[in-house]
Design goal:
Shape: globular
CATH topology: Alpha/beta knot
Number of strands: 5
Oligomer: single chain
Largest sheet: 5 strands, parallel
Distance between the termini: 24 Å
Radius of gyration: 15 Å
Number of domains: 1
Structural class: alpha/beta
Length: 159
């Protein structure tokens, strides 16, 4: 059974987003071992400079690195590749067939991920060219990973 780690900066504040993520986590646990790790984002002033943002992202990258215990690393970022659900499923299935037992989906804070961390990842993935609230994007990621495993397992969820 594959292990899927969701490493996302910060806790979800809204109960409805937490509940949605919990529901997909429960569903996904039928197909994979699922963990969620939520390191605390670095505090920034109201109107941070680019240098302050970059320093914060590097500190957050260090926190994220402590949560990764090997495996395939996916950086969720706006400039990443967009994949249809079927291709994500095929990619995950190919990993499992190739001996990769752990996949780490990494979600940064509101300013994203440090470039140094993105360079260490095996895949840069984007949900869409559109912009979504951070909390909603996390729900969407959970849903898409669940959908991918549903496709792999010939479930009726994906139509």
């Amino acid at each position: 059974m594959m292990t899927v780690n969701f490493i996302a900066m910060g806790k979800l504040k809204e109960s409805y987003f937490r509940e949605a993520c919990a529901e997909y986590q429960k569903r996904l646990s039928s197909f994979a071992k699922v963990t969620v790790k939520e390191p605390e984002p670095v505090d920034l002033p109201q109107d941070p400079s680019r240098a302050q943002i970059d320093r914060a992202l590097e500190r957050e990258a260090e926190l994220i690195r402590t949560q990764i215990k090997g495996g395939f690393k996916v950086a969720m970022c706006v400039e990443g590749k967009t994949l249809p659900s079927e291709e994500l499923a095929a990619k995950l299935e190919g990993m499992a067939g190739g001996g990769i037992s752990t996949v780490n989906f990494i979600v940064g804070s509101s300013f994203g991920l440090a470039e140094s961390l993105k360079k260490e990842c095996d895949l840069r993935l984007s949900m869409s060219p559109m912009t979504f609230p951070h909390s909603l994007a996390r729900v969407m990621l959970f849903e898409q990973v669940y959908r991918a495993f549903s496709i792999i397992n010939n479930s009726k969820y994906h139509k």
